[in-house]
Write a structure and sequence with these properties.
Blueprint lengths: L2 H26 L3 H4 L8 H10 L8 H16 L15 H13 L11 H17 L9 H10 L6 H15 L1 E3 L2 E3 L3 H7 L4 E2 L6 H13 L4 H17 L16 E2 L5 H6 L13 H14 L3 H18 L17 H15 L2 H22 L2 H4 L11 H12 L1 H7 L7
Antiparallel strand pairs: 1-2, 3-4
Helix pairs in contact: 1-16, 1-18, 3-4, 3-5, 5-7, 6-7, 6-8, 7-10, 10-11, 10-13, 13-14, 13-15, 14-16, 15-16, 15-18, 16-18, 18-19
Length: about 425
Amino acid sequence: MSTIQTEKVINTRFKVVLAQIKHLLHDQENQAEFVQNGNLFNGYAGIVYYYFSLLKAFPDGESEAYIALEKLIESYNAQDNTASKYMTFCSGLSGFYFLIQKLVDQGYLDEMFLEEVLPINELIFKDTLKLLAEENTDFLHGASGQMLYLLSSKADPNRAKYLGLLIDELLKLAVIDEKGLRFPNSTVKLFQNTDNTNMSLSHGNTGILLVLLNIYDAGIEQEKLGAAIKQGLNYFISYYQPRKEGVPLSAFPLLVDEKQTTQELINGDFYADNYSWCYGDLAAVWLLYQSSVSFKQSTYADMADEIGKVMAAQLMLLPASGIKINSHFCHGTSGVALFLNRLYHFTRLKIYQQAAAVWLESTLDHLEKDLNNPDFMNRPTSLGLLEGVSGAMFALAAAEHDDIAVNWTDMFLLS
């Protein structure tokens, strides 16, 4: 089959799954409990985000996007919505108002929709202080995610003040020694029953440092943050193990038990090769590249290139192995595919583009299977952005359309 024929087949398959997802969402939107789930990452707020993110590429979806938004806001105003009961970025007010802020920024809503945001931001600020007092630094379910929301609220005159105070409290929690800087996370300790240092994007140090880097790039507390972020990078680098072709070990550990030597960590599967949005070297490489630009320090990019080229070459071989069993974003194929696509657009390294193409096709394969798999589709999160089919479609669309990739991937820390 020629390249043109292959592209036509893939385009047809893409349109078929897009239509399937649209039909499934319309069916569910008649269920009150579906609309009342205001979770940004796995609920209806995320579906509204999904609808609007696709509009530049698929403008015929405009009416359904606004109808969905109206349903969500009505549910929120009636206090029937879960988003009104929590504060977190993943499932509460921070995520809900991140969506509203995004729609204003992209010109889909008037600024009048932000009139009530100042008292909401004060509530979120106070809750974030409380979370930090509890050492809950988590991106999805804790303080750093809520800080990302407050950063997005550019019209709030208290934005810099809130973030400055929160940064001070966060840095008080930092453990600093000759290895560098790292943060505890009480959420991880509670649910994983471990004191190990978590290095992930979703729950650990990569996510926290990426949020802090976003705040630094906005010109807030740069002197303080610059020093802290570099110390955080030093902690990663202190555990760096060069990747080798054919060796299934990551460059950085997923978790760190500081009572163990690096060799003991390797022997204990702490360096297990994990490819996903939430955990693993993809996020660490992204952090290094972003830091190289923010701090104008090429050594970070050099290390990212060294890791990333070997990683991408290995990734090109993996979809055929069946290592990933579904299309979803968090730890399925689509998060990997979009990460590789973003790495290519950031670096223009051809190997990232080649690896992204392999994983995007694998995502389409898995998405077709997932949509016809009752075991997958009967899960409560099966339609969501993080663990469902809308997230997989979002990744496929973002890889093809720059507007989506540039303007809508920041909720995943990918822009």
